[in-house]
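ok so i was messing around last nite and threw this chain in just to see what happens. nothing serious, just curious
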Amino acid sequence: MLENFLFNVEYGINHVLDINGYDHVLFLMVLTVSYVFKDWKRVLLLVSMFTLGHTLSLVLAAYNVVSVNGTLVEFLIPVTIFIAAVYNVFTAGKGAQKEKVGVLFITTLAFGLIHGLGFAREFTMFLGESDNKLILLIEFALGIEIAQIIIVFVVLFLGYLVQTIFRFSKRDWVLVISSIVIGLVIPMLIESDFWG
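result:
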């Protein structure tokens, strides 16, 4: 029982931290780069909204409520990252992340749904004919949340170092990270099977 639990949690952690599927990491970077450690409650809520959306789409797929066009979803994932990064570029240093909290939470939930749908096919194969789908989903979601908290901590810590030791302004830090992410996402958009 404990072995299964640990395996499923680890599966969730590996899903986020997979070097070949770094889209998840890029999204978390642009989601949290505008924040500092004292904003941890808001960041945790945002990350949890993303996990909720991600898990919800896996539940819908696991119980055959939704069936998705894989090519479309694989295209939409980098689109969500691109939108979040461009939003950061245009709002860097303007405190927009503190104003429109509701919009940010709803958007993050929606992005989580899209990212979850991107993983639904593989996850459904992982579930197989399991009788405990819901428990597997919860354990997997726990793994996702743990991995996301690790990434968020690293982003916040790097932000702290860059802004205190290297004297980067918060605005410049947000612009640099968001621009790097945009640079990484554009090829994903261009090379997508969606166009072909």
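not much to say yet. The helical segments are 2-17, 23-32, 40-62, 70-91, 96-99, 101-127, 133-164, 170-190.
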